[in-house]
Write a structure and sequence with these properties.
Length: 237
């Protein structure tokens, strides 16, 4: 019985905000294209995880979100899948340069995982994904970014380096994800995160994910999100 209660607690979902879109029960409910549906099936994802059930319709509706959930809850797909839809909805994709989707993560390992997940879904649309993090040649990254991409997955420090080198501009970025925001702050990336956010147009869609919500992250969220919906999974935050 203890176990059952623990399990229930870990799945409990709390949602706050106004005009919250109805949660989904299946990926079909999200209205994804056949390409995305087949990529989802190929991953072996049968149904959305708890956070995905609530976050997917929120993000697909264009709203800002604060997602609070611990590791392993399936947050990556919750922001990658709507990002593909967001990019495909852009008229005249080729006209401007620079990424439409900008994803920041605390470490190169995390950035790389997100990069791989994004590539799986981006591939069939010809959406180009670039990874930008330390440990790789800056010159090579500079060259890759110069060719152009629709999505950049980055650690904050290296993205700042690339912006300083003018490897990319963020003038067409309209979809910003801050993944594991608490860890980015723990690692001292607050100034870099703030600088990146400051370089992206204010009418963007912003998604902030964090395992915990310390005061500093609450403050950031208040400053950079617009009428966010908060989705909390389990006994966290
Ligand atoms: P988080 O970012 O919350 O830590 P991830 O996005 O890394 O979680 O997902 C954790 C694991 O769950 C990954 O191996 C991922 O492939 C898998 N996963 C994500 N969504 C689903 C789903 N709907 N069904 C089954 N597995 C999933
Ligand atoms: Mg994650």
């Amino acid at each position: 019985e203890q176990d059952v209660n623990e399990h229930r607690k870990s799945l409990a979902i709390r949602v706050s905000g106004f005009d919250v879109p109805k949660s989904v029960k299946t990926f079909e409910d999200c209205g994804f294209s056949t390409e995305i549906m087949s990529a989802i099936k190929k991953q072996g994802y049968e149904k959305p995880t708890s956070i995905q059930c609530q976050a997917l319709p929120v993000v697909l509706s264009g709203r800002d979100i604060i997602g609070i959930a611990k590791t392993g809850s399936g947050k990556t797909a919750a922001f990658v899948l709507p990002m593909i839809v967001h990019i495909m909805d852009q008229p005249e994709l080729q006209k401007e340069e620079g990424p439409i989707g900008v994803i920041c993560a605390p470490t190169r390992e995390l950035a790389h995982q997100i990069y791989l997940e994004a590539k799986k879904f981006a591939k069939s649309y010809g959406i180009r994904v670039s990874a930008v993090y330390g440990g790789m040649s800056k010159l090579e990254q500079y060259r890759e970014l110069k060719v152009g991409c629709e999505v950049v997955v980055a650690t904050p420090g290296r993205l700042i380096d690339m912006l300083k080198m003018k490897a990319l501009t963020m003038t067409r970025a309209t979809y910003l994800v801050l993944d594991e925001a608490d860890r980015m702050f723990d690692l001292g990336f607050e100034p870099q995160v703030r600088s990146i956010v400051g370089q992206i147009r204010p009418d963007r869609q912003t998604l902030l994910f964090s395992a915990t919500m310390p005061r500093k992250i609450e403050k950031l969220a208040r400053e950079i999100l617009t009428d966010p919906i908060r989705v909390t999974v389990g006994e966290v935050g």
